[in-house]
Amino acid sequence: SLRRSGVSSRICIPQIRPSMPTAGRKPVLMTFSDLIQEQNLTDRFCVLQSGCIGLCKYEPVVQIKEPGKPTVTYIRMTPDKAKEVLERHLLGGQIIDQYTLDYADHQ
């Protein structure tokens, strides 16, 4: 659990199906990991890889899971978007609506 680990928020990057290309996922994962290390935020955030969540057409996908808040699913992520999500959402508390699954579903 989040409380037990002492980390307040999780950044989950679902694995895509083995048949799908993985090109975009690793740079996003590395961007989050590197920025969290560089900014000494490992006590606040952890980056996890999770199983496929069935959103292959939106890959790369990132889910932000914060205690007491609904999960936010960001889609079609890039390293630049990952940096923005860290700065604006995780550190600034502002969800970037235009990058979310909910936004795409309502277009």
In a nutshell, what does this entry contain?
With 107 residues, the chain is α+β, with helices and mostly antiparallel strands. The protein is 34% helix and 18% strand.
Walk me through this protein's architecture:
This protein is of the alpha+beta class and 107 residues long. Helices cover 34% and strands 18% of the residues. It contains 4 helices and 4 strands. It has helices at residues 2-5, 25-38, 79-91, 101-105, and strands spanning 9-14, 45-50, 62-65, 72-74. It has a 4-stranded mixed sheet, covered by helices on one side. Strand 1, helix 2 and strand 2 (45-50) form a beta-alpha-beta unit. Helix 2 (25-38) crosses helix 3 (79-91). The longest helix has 14 residues, at 25-38. It is globular. The model has no long low-confidence stretch (mean pLDDT 85).
Distance between the termini: 35 Å
Sequence of strands across the biggest β-sheet:
2-1-3-4
| Relative helix content | 25-40%
Using only CA atoms, what is the Rg? 13 Å
Structural class: alpha+beta
